[in-house]
From TrEMBL:
This is Trehalase. It comes from Artemisia annua. Its EC number is 3.2.1.28. It catalyses: alpha,alpha-trehalose + H2O = alpha-D-glucose + beta-D-glucose. PANTHER family: TREHALASE. Pfam families: Trehalase.
Length: 570
């Protein structure tokens, strides 16, 4: 790992933190991506496609052929020359993976969705279930034999991919995928995905954003412990618990040390440790190299650019890439400031991790870990109560670190630094037992959610901000709504369960409508317009994408549907 002070640009005090160097292959593919943009133009251009290509020959040979291509002054190549080069020297991204029918897939699993009695809904549930076959992949022999020619990482077990342009496994998507797989009774597939993620911790020290060489500089929202606990609850698999525990303890350290750790001193002089997103990267993201370079174009100073690149990658680490939630100026992406925000959702996930490790250590009889992580969870709960909780609003707010104190070891708490804008993440702590076991808190937060404006015809929106960013309204239909629903259900309160069901029914109806409207399910992340259920023209994701399948199946399993959910928007 190289620190920024060792890199050729000395950017202090703007840019802080470590950088994980990338591979020569990724650097080369970035140049191919840049040339492709100049050659083919920006219409329908997907930069990720080019860093997903693999080489037919060793890098020096392919590089030479690429460098020998006649180029114009602006770096473009004749379309026919470039296409010729691609077909002679590169394999398509899809060649790295093979379709595989999961070993535990059956057309109708025994005991599948027992509470879903309406025939139409049940048939649809079975179709969603059947999509696991479409999204299941294993790494091809070619990747295993010659990993140096591929950016795809050689994982041992089959995976479920999100679909569309995302042909590799993703960290946090896997949580919802696994919730769906469990509803589909596909325990072995779920375990294989978790073992792959544990393998990444063994190799890198943390779970990568996704299984590609260009994702090694950051993680994603840490939900591995939740995956393990959900599988364990259904299978009592002690082998999994034993393999997972050391990895989870390692992952916990990753999120609670170095740049990911923030210390805040409260009014009473007590200090609190919390976590933040912070990528180990300060260059354009390889998979979006041409886009990030353009975003940073207006900045004149290299140091500012490095900082912006770090913010872009750190926002990708948050899973919410991109949203006004992380921006100082909501209309300017170049004002991202993710590394100076202490996020509610990340800390809820780490608190969950601490409670999950306590539970798993207990099961495994590892008493010292039980004591340690129990104490850690109590400390984080206290920190979240102090720094994020706003009793008046009934929400937990992200905490923005003061610019003037940046670079300091301990930040002073200041109530005005809570970001009072409304996001779905403000309600995620409800997912955690430490909060959903408190009746007063649940009541208050449920009321606050109902009046927040986030509850739309299609479920819980990620934010109220009508921006062009992927994770803002109207595009951002949060998978995290599943956690809010789960938390409301787990609280045990009748009113909370009824709110949870109300949210779930919005999501289910909309996705069912999407399915009925298009008369087909797609593997890709598609959108529909569905008057009534899309809330008068709001866009919603269509079932078929990995995580949305998972949420659909988990909701169907939890609530069951006796009623007809037929779309009324046709
Ligand atoms: O293409 C750029 C970005 O793509 C990913 O982000 C989005 O898709 C992921 C897979 O479904 C999802 O986990 C994430 O929440 C989405 O925003 C990737 O994770 C980013 O790192 C990447 O830069």
């Amino acid at each position: 790992m190289m620190t920024s002070s060792q890199s050729k640009l000395t950017c202090k005090p703007t840019d802080y933190g470590p950088v994980v160097p990338t591979t020569p292959l990724v650097i080369f593919l970035q140049s191919v991506q840049e040339t492709a943009l100049k050659t083919f133009g920006s219409s329908n251009f997907d930069p990720k496609l080019y860093v997903d290509l693999s080489l037919k020959y060793d890098l020096p040979i392919v590089k030479k052929a690429f460098n020998d291509l006649p180029k114009t002054e602006n770096g473009s190549v004749l379309v026919s020359d470039f296409k010729g080069f691609l077909s002679k020297f590169m394999n398509g991204a899809e060649d790295d993976l093979e379709h595989v029918v999961p070993v535990d897939y059956v057309v109708e699993p025994h005991g599948f969705l027992p509470k879903v009695v309406h025939k139409g809904v049940r048939d649809w549930g079975l179709e969603v279930h059947s999509l696991w076959k479409n999204l299941s992949r294993k790494v091809s022999k070619r990747v295993l034999e010659h990993p140096e020619l591929h950016t795809l990482l050689p994982l041992k077990y089959p995976v479920i991919i999100p679909g569309s342009r995302f042909q590799e496994v993703y960290y946090w998507d896997s949580y919802w995928v696994i919730r769906g797989l469990l509803a589909s009774k596909m325990y072995e597939t779920a375990k294989g995905i978790v073992l792959n993620l544990i393998g990444l911790i063994d190799t890198y020290g943390y779970v990568l954003n996704g299984a590609r060489a260009y994702y090694t500089n950051r993680s994603q929202p840490p939900l591995l412990s939740s995956m393990v606990v959900e599988i364990y609850k259904r299978t009592n698999d002690m082998d999994l618990v034993k393999k997972a525990l050391p990895a989870l303890i390692k992952e916990h350290k990753f999120w609670n040390s170095g740049i990911h750790n923030v210390i805040i001193e409260d009014d009473q002089g007590l200090t609190h440790n919390l976590s933040r997103y912070y990528a180990m990267w300060n260059q354009p993201r390889p998979e979006s190299f041409t886009i990030d370079t353009e975003t940073a174009d207006k900045l004149t100073n290299d140091c500012e650019k490095e900082q912006l690149y770090r913010e872009l990658a750190s926002t990708a680490e948050s899973g919410w890439d991109f949203s006004t939630r992380w921006m100082k100026n909501t209309s300017d992406l170049a004002t991202l400031t993710t590394t100076t925000i202490v996020p509610v959702d990340l800390n809820a996930f780490v608190l969950k991790m601490e409670l999950d490790i306590t539970l798993l250590a207990n099961v495994a009889g590892e008493t010292s870990h039980v004591l340690h992580f129990n104490r850690a969870s109590e400390a984080r709960k206290k920190a979240m109560d102090t720094i994020f909780w706003n009793a008046e609003k009934g929400q937990w707010f992200d905490y923005w670190l003061n610019d003037s104190s940046s670079g300091k070891d301990v930040y002073k708490w200041d109530a005005s630094n809570q970001n009072q804008n409304i996001f779905a993440s403000n309600f995620i702590p409800l997912w955690i037992e430490s909060f959903n076991s408190d009746e007063t808190v649940v009541k208050k937060v449920a009321q606050s959610l109902e009046s927040s404006g986030l509850l739309r015809a299609a479920g819980v929106a990620t934010s109220l901000s009508n921006s062009s960013q992927q994770w803002d309204f109207p595009n951002g239909w949060a998978p995290v709504q599943h956690m809010i629903v789960d938390g409301l259900v787990r609280s045990g309160s009748k009113e909370a369960r009824s709110l949870a069901k109300d949210i779930a029914i919005r999501w289910i109806r909309t996705n069912y409508a999407a399915y009925k409207t298009s008369k087909a399910m797609h593997e890709k992340y598609d959108v529909i317009k569905c008057g009534d259920f899309g809330g008068g023209g709001e866009y919603v994701p269509q079932t078929g994408f990995g995580w949305s399948n998972g949420v659909v199946l988990a909701f169907l399993e939890e609530f069951g549907w006796a009623e007809d959910l037929s779309p009324q928007c046709q």
